[in-house]
Amino acid sequence: MKQLTNKNSIGWLFVLISVAAITLFYFYPMFDALLLSFQSGMGANLEYVGFDNWSRLLNDPTLRQALINTMTYLMIQVPLMIVLALFFSVILNDPDLKFRGFFRTAIFLPAVTSLVAYSVIFKYMFSVDGIVNQLLMHLNFISEPIAFISDPVWAKVVIILAITWRWTGYNMIFYLSALQNIDRSIYEAARIDGANSFQQFIQITIPMLKPIILFTTITSTIGTLQLFDEVVNITGGGPGIQTISISQYIYDLSFKYTPNFGYAATVSYVIVILVVILSIIQFKVAGEKE
Amino acid sequence: MKKLKKTFIYLFLSIATIISIYPFFWMIVSMTNKSVDVTQGRQLPGTYLFENLRKLFDQVDMVTALTNSAIIAILSTFFTLFIASLAGYGFQMYRSKGKDIVFNILLLSMMIPFASIMIPLYRLFGRISQTAPIIGIDTLAAAFLPTITTAFFIFFFRQNTKMFPKDLIEAGRIDGLSEIGIFFRIFVPTMKTTYAAAAIIAFMNSWNNFLWPLVVLQSPSKQTIPLLISNLGSSYAPDYGMIMSAITIATLPTALVFFFMQKHFVAGMMGSVKG
To answer: Could you list the pLDDT tens digit for every one of the 275 residues in chain B?
Structure first.
């Protein structure tokens, strides 16, 4: 018995540094942000102001725009990417397909780029004299170049396209590995029962992949809610604040405008609350009991 | 009908491949061309590669940025692997009710968006600056310290520890090794592939990290590669050839790791789901 408790305490030693580091670098900052959300002032001169910051949230046009933008990215980009990734994975799971490895590597390749690097490339590709405009004009789809980056709608489209380019292959790999675990005889049986490929996809593939689809949807949602690198480097949030994300707004409030840490911390809790709510909804929709 | 479907599939995959690869192609081709040629849409390799590289290393402090990024990424990877594997091993091999609860609490930190802790972290390092400026604001240490362990890597190592044969531990105990000795002498050498997979992901995360370095590193001598590229990318009169050289160099390490260690690369990515 004595040896057992001894082993138990040795176990605690193994996890000690991690527990300390995560407490210091994650949980303590969360707590500090909560305290900050009740304070106001410039830089380090803060004083408690009660719920002022929280009521300011309700009447903040920039925050409203940032929320609308982030939700737009989320609602369009995440489903688009998940469907594309599922589609690719089902096609590439066919053992009779030629050049399977090549296609898989090619589609995954964008996932090795740094967010800043690919954002800058996309910004240039979609600039007024960029390659996309040159191509579209060459094909006679348009007669005048489109100002993708400085148009409020097109700028959002470019951001959504960019994120989809970067992450579709990444998510595809998760589905491919899950597909390999599905017993092929299930499909054989379905085929004998007369199910076509679309019915097989809806009735076998989707239900079997449900846990992994849920996982990728949640990670993509959390990722999109924190969107920063792409927006800052492709559009800088512009034109005006038409593409600004919540993370960028928090950054601007803290380091670009007159520093207002208290209000920035309050806005940051909006992301936390959204992450929690959306994760719960996704779990409920997927019917997971865990 | 079946043939038509096949043709459509290959056509679709080919278009997807072109879209996926084209930005890489353009990046590499533009690296060898003059800025003017890039804006005019030149799609062929040129002869301007050395000129672009010379400009990049002369006009911009590329060497400093590369060194800073490498130092931060190597230290971050080393500490993450060491600290998170200790914890993953501890949580799995010395399971107890208390540890399971603590583990689940640590997992909650994965839900915390970085933007929501960035200001408190900045304030924390501001306070550290007053007593220990060597690890405070605007130091390379501050850039990697918050990344020395994450719940993701603890989870990753714990999942992989499940596959580690318990007999080896008993054998170690019989041989008279201490508990920590067993970890270093038996666990670490046996789990090389797990460490390789984790190292790839940790290195990539750090090498590409943008927001925290942007917040905490202020002087030009502390600039990392993503900060440098972001600065170049936002200039009003961009020198495309030079910027594409910088981007290619920045992408090279992760691309090489991917091509030469594809198996570990994917294993690291998957680490978060299996088990």
So the answer is: 678 888 999 999 999 999 999 999 999 999 999 888 888 888 888 888 999 999 889 889 999 999 999 999 999 999 999 999 999 999 999 999 999 999 999 998 988 889 889 999 999 999 999 999 989 999 999 999 999 999 999 999 998 898 888 888 889 999 989 989 999 999 999 998 889 889 988 999 999 999 999 999 989 999 999 999 999 998 888 899 999 999 999 999 988 888 888 777 777 777 655 43
Q: Which of B197, B246, B193 is nearest to B69 (CA)?
A: B246
Spatial contact of A260 and A40, defined as CB atoms under 8 Å apart: yes
Taking CB atoms and an 8 Å limit, are A119 and B233 in contact across chains? yes
Nearest CA in chain A to B150: A22
Q: Which of A25, A67, A86, A229 to mutate to test the interface with B (most CBs of B within 10 A)?
A: A25
Q: How far apart are CA B179 and CA A178, in angstroms?
A: 37
Domains of chain B, with CATH numbers? 61-270 (1.10.3720.10)
Domain boundaries, chain A: 60-286
Interchain contact, B20 vs A113, CB within 8 Å: no
Q: Please answer yes or no on whether B258 and A112 come within 8 Å at the CB atom.
A: yes
Residue contact B149–A22, C-beta within 8 A: yes
Sign of CA dihedral B71, A166, B49, A233: negative
CB-nearest partner of A117 from B95, B229, B240: B229
Position B243, amino acid: I
Q: Do A228 and B113 touch (CB under 8 A)?
A: no
Instruction: Tell the CATH superfamily of the A60-286 domain.
Output: MetI-like (1.10.3720.10)
Handedness of CA A128, A133, A137, A140 (dihedral sign): negative
ipTM of the complex: 0.90
Shortest alpha-carbon distance between residue B243 and chain A (Å): 9
CB B272 within 8 A of CB B152: yes
Cα of A154 to nearest chain B Cα, Å? 19
User: With an 8 Å Cβ cutoff, are B102 and A15 in contact?
Assistant: yes
Q: Which of B94, B257, B269 sits opposite A11 (nearest CB)?
A: B94
In angstroms, rounded to a whole number, what is the distance separating the alpha carbons of residues B72 and B60?
Answer: 20
What residues of chain A lie within 8 A of the CB of B41, using their CB? 131, 134
d(CA B12, CA A7): 58
Nearest alpha carbon to residue B269 among B176, B218, B205:
B205
